[in-house]
Amino acid sequence: MSTTAEQAISQAIDYIAAHWQEQPSLDFLAERAGYESTHFQKTFTRMVGLSPKRLVQFMNARHARELLLTGYSTLDAAYETGLSGTGRLFDAMLNVVAATPGEVKRKGAGLTIHYGFHPTPMGEVLIAQTERGLCWLGFAVDEERIVPMARLRKDWPLATLIHDDNATRDTAEKIMNIWRGADDRLTLHLYGTNFQMQVWQALLKIPCGATVSYQAVAEYIGRPKAFRAVGTAVGANPVSLLIPCHRVIQATGIVENYGWGTPRKKLILALEGEGPGRS
Q1: Any idea which residues carry the catalytic annotation?
Q2: How does residue 17 score in pLDDT terms, banded at 50, 70 and 90?
Q3: Considering the entire predicted model, what is its pTM?
Q4: At CA 31, angle to CA 29 and CA 32, rounded to 5?
């Protein structure tokens, strides 16, 4: 599939995430993307694994609730069940390297970060990396790049940022390979407190297609009363999707508190529930 086609489908997904309540029709989405309806449907389904109509259906609260009823009460149960098996793969494929205390204290001063924007089945993503590894990943919001860029600059305020889509293209491909469960490797260059690192390592154990509660994560790391602090640590995750904070939900099954918006969280869970990368 050409890059142009990938970008068109990625933009269509971004539009659905922002306007799903309007129930956009196939004809509307196809025209907006510059495609004939039948060709658009086939291209969309091949890349995303769901038809546009089915994806819109999953975005409403009823379908999200039904999807999340398959969640697990404990992280151990989710991990041992495995579902699609990608929980263990995530552990093996992602090597987490902690930023040095000096890098944290200097807020990125003296550090060069290359970043780029790339289409994915979840919409356009901003990928940023240092020479040591991937340091940031976030989504365009309402089809705008300004939000992820602002958050990247907030996390690394004094770093030198260089926009270079080519420099991050291989990383973008690795990210999607890992999300789909293919055999690939990627190093994450992260900074956080010891507690945050603990929480993020725990999130890597949640298999694709599963959801657990904040309480379950707190119990897993041996801090059962710290579920609110777990929520804060989940929200501070700098590499969304790879560290799957979208798989942590409220114990009631409500899907909220996602940094890239509730619709985006529902969208990702819907794709994972159907099986990522069915293309």
Answers
A1: 245
A2: confident
A3: 0.74
A4: 65
